[in-house]
Amino acid sequence: MREFGRGCRSEFRLDHAVAQLNHGSFGATPLVVLDAAEAWRRRMEDDTTHFVRRIWPGAIAEARQKLAAFLNADADGLVFVDNATQGANAVLRSLDLRPGDVVATTEHGYRAVAKTIDYVCRRTGAAHLRLAQTLAPGELAASLPPQTKLLVLDHITSPSALVVPVAEILAAVRPLGVPVLVDGAHAPGQLALDLAALGADFYVGNCHKWLFAAKGAAFLSVARDWRGRVHPTTISHGLDQGLAAEFDWTGTRDVGAWLSVPDGIAFGASYGWDRIRAHNNALCRAMAKCLADAYGTEIRGDAHMAAIRLPLSGTLDEARALRLAARLYDRVQVQAPVMAFDGALWVRVSAQIYNTAADGDRLADADWPALDA
Prior knowledge:
Elements lengths: L18 E2 L2 H4 L4 H16 L1 H24 L6 E4 L2 H9 L9 E5 L4 H14 L2 E5 L5 H6 L5 E7 L11 H8 L6 E5 L10 H4 L3 E5 L11 E5 L20 H6 L7 H4 L1 H11 L1 H23 L3 E2 L4 E5 L8 H15 L1 E2 L2 E4 L2 E7 L6 H8 L3 H5 L1
Parallel strand pairs: 1-11, 3-4, 3-5, 5-6, 6-7
Antiparallel strand pairs: 2-8, 7-8, 9-10, 10-13, 12-13
Helix pairs in contact: 2-3, 4-5, 12-14
């Protein structure tokens, strides 16, 4: 049985002189997957025209089929994008919004997607409605005005690391006829996804975070009724020729990351996906408890991530949070994001197979007042 912790650190290029507790932001790609992505790049450079004309379409289709099987998704409605935010942009910018229409989100929504919604609403005259995350599914559905054209939900929230009961919310909202976009940036790999059973109108997720793919690999899943109405943010030769034709080719690009997705899935399978989830969840909970005990504060979060409130008061803004994270790295050699959220500053920790309890211990020893001085 393959070892976790120090036993698998040689599988990654990470600098382990630093306590790497920020897998959630950008992921970490195993060396074997980096090699796979590079092999595709070299193959493209061997004869670029042949690769683009003859190899590219089939290779992307095969990678899409393998990802769809892992997610239990309909491959005909699944396309690759560079990141979840790009996929969310494609959906939001394909909507036919008009003055008086509403796009609803929760207060825990990812900021980049919230800014996209603001941009789209500003250009169309629609309104961006932010709902409280604490609403129960039925209450959330009841709070949607009749003008709502889309509800956007995070599956796992970025600042608070909470797993949102998306299936229950979808069931409550479905009778209203309101389409739902699920931002599952952190979900693939962390959660055992079944997109067919979930039944969201749109689902976006990253493969380079918890699915071990190379950077720049993500997907957009589109329900059958919407496939003729959703277009990539870059329109190219495939316009109106089907979802795959439009998204697979938006111009010349490096497809090594997309084609490495099956290798990332296979890497996780070599350890056992259920085994990885059990290990990461348990380690994250243990580290979070250690930190909350050390700081005398509270924990939020589920699965492989947790947010721990810092024992600091005063100005609670993003500039201060970024400054604290930089000092934590420079002075303590811990890589972990600090976020200003819900009236407090929080440090978010991620647990991945290369982490050990000692990584959390180093963060527990951090002198936050000194870092803040």
